[in-house]
Amino acid sequence: MHVSHAIAARRSIRTFTDRAITREDLEPLFHDANLAPNHRLTQPWRFYVLGPEGRAGYGLALGNRKAKKATDEAQADKMRKDTSDSHRAWPCMVVVAMTLNENAEIREEDYAATMMAVENLCISAVAHGLGTYIRSGAIMDDPAARAAVGVPEGERIVAVLTVGEPAEQPPEKTRRPATELTHWVD
Ligand SMILES: Cc1cc2nc3c(=O)[nH]c(=O)nc-3n(C[C@H](O)[C@H](O)[C@H](O)COP(=O)(O)O)c2cc1C
């Protein structure tokens, strides 16, 4: 598939088929992610592939945060269980973390490089017949979520991806054309 076609076909995929996602499915995606540009060849990205228990644990950490807004304990329990169960049911979750260099400039470069790796992964997924959804938020720094993933100190989670065979191709979202966002400077 031409890379422009893969870029154009990429969508955030909310629903996946039941097809299991294997190590063989994922390794080419990590290979492509690992080719992302990165200054000083720090290769700051780290990929954590969560099995069902890891997904449920991450979902429970998220559910616990949601449950703080519940009006009673029964509703809180349901929020915890539903969020944990829905995460367990994903075909695959890949948590992307980055190493935290003590130098602030390198840290910023490393964040940018890691997100380039995320995009490579998402585009590669399309070329391999798969879809992705990127999630983020304060949950990524939650100690319970970090523990569920097994992220060590010195790494920060920067993106949480669901990966699977798409059960849908959502319509393209309306975007401002690039011509409006481009300045041609003499
Ligand atoms: C860094 C980053 C973080 C994101 N975090 C979330 C998120 O927490 N929740 C969510 O629903 N979508 C999240 N998204 C997905 C965007 O909402 C999505 O890419 C956007 O709506 C455009 O849709 P498309 O991906 O189908 O083109 C994130 C995307 C990026 C790049």
Structure description:
The chain has six helices and four strands; from the N terminus they run ααβααβαβαβ. The protein is globular and about 65 Å long. The protein has a four-stranded antiparallel beta sheet. The mean pLDDT is 97. The protein is 44% helix and 15% strand. The protein has one domain: 3-Layer(aba) Sandwich (NADH Oxidase), CATH 3.40.109.10. By secondary structure, the protein is an alpha+beta fold. Helix 1 (3-9) crosses helix 5 and helix 2 packs across helix 5 (104-127). Bound molecules: flavin mononucleotide (FMN). Flavin mononucleotide is lined by residues 11-12, 134-137, 159, 173.
Category from helices, strands and their pairing: alpha+beta
The count of DSSP E runs of length 2 or more, i.e. the number of strands, is 4
Mean pLDDT: 97
State the major sheet: 4 strands, antiparallel
Low-confidence stretches: none
Order of helices and strands: HHEHHEHEHE
Bound molecules: flavin mononucleotide
Number of helical segments? Answer: 6
Termini distance? 36 Å
- In percent, how much strand structure appears in the residues? 15-25%
Structure described in brief:
With 186 residues, the protein is α+β, with helices and mostly antiparallel strands. The protein has one domain (3-181): NADH Oxidase.
Task: Output the keywords.
globular; four-stranded antiparallel β-sheet; binds flavin mononucleotide; 15% strand; 186 residues
